[in-house]
Write a structure and sequence with these properties.
Helix content is 30%, strand content 14%. By secondary structure, it is α/β, with parallel strands linked by helices. The structure holds zinc ion (ZN) (2 copies). One zinc ion is lined by residues 77, 103, 105, 134-135.
Length: 243
């Protein structure tokens, strides 16, 4: 059993994503109620059908940074669009964020070959704004775990353990098997991971019970789980926060 406290959730959605149902304030209040010191908003970037536009991300700076004992982080879940690792958010929106997640979504990129999916992940990590690969467990997009984990370590990018992927009604095929395989490679290379709720309603914000259980069952090293360590959160995500 892990003994550390969970300190952060950086993968959450608000009504800005249009298929999520809580406001930013409701999400923040939910994170505060759990005692989380860090909460990150990561609405879907513009290529996701019906989500918000670039100016939404540009203007996140109007949301106060500090909420009593909680620090608000400005993020986005960017869509990887192709094997070149192109994403759907540009400057200046991107550089105003504290972090961006990069994810492959079925409605923003067609599955092609494992080589293409591998290249998509490898190349997106050349973008300095990408701090996390979100739900890298989708069986429709097989890729080379070894190559991606090695580059993630090199580029200081985190692999996500996505809470939604582990739910009984998860829609990404073979997510558990893929995650298990990926985490074995993470262990081998001492690659840190981050738990993300992928909450689309505030009651899910900050909650990672399935992810924690999954990591415990794999004997995944506690010291590689970023949520549990303030110094890792600072190193990978919050080291250079602006006002
Ligand atoms: Zn996603
Ligand atoms: Zn998401």
């Amino acid at each position: 059993m892990y003994t550390s406290r969970d300190l952060i959730d950086i993968h959450t959605h608000s009504t800005g994503s249009r298929h999520a149902y809580s406001t930013v304030t409701e999400n923040i209040r939910a994170a505060q109620a759990l005692g989380l010191p860090y909460y990150g908003l990561s609405d879907h970037a513009p290529a996701m059908p019906f989500t918000t536009g670039g100016s939404y991300f540009l203007n996140l700076i109007v949301i106060p940074r500090e909420w009593e004992n909680l620090t608000f982080l400005r993020g986005a879940e960017c869509n990887i669009l192709n094997a070149n690792g192109d994403i759907d958010l540009e400057e200046p929106s991107l550089s105003r964020l504290d972090y961006a997640l990069a994810a492959i979504h079925r409605n923003c990129m067609e599955p092609t070959t494992p080589e293409d999916h591998t290249n998509a992940y490898l190349k997106v990590m050349d973008n300095p704004h990408i701090k996390v690969l979100a739900h890298p467990d989708d069986g429709r997009f097989p890729y080379d775990f070894e190559a991606v984990v090695r580059k993630a370590v090199d580029r200081k990018v985190l692999l996500e353990v996505n809470e939604c992927s582990l739910k009984p009604d998860a829609y990404r095929p073979d997510a558990k098997e893929n995650l298990r395989g990926l985490l074995e490679v993470c262990k081998k290379y001492n690659a840190p991971v981050i738990l993300g709720s992928d909450a689309h309603f505030h009651t899910d914000v900050g909650k990672h019970p399935l992810g924690i259980k999954f990591l415990e069952e794999m004997d995944f090293p506690e010291e590689l789980i970023v949520n549990f360590h303030e110094e890792l959160i600072k190193f990978f995500l919050t080291g250079n926060l602006t006002k």
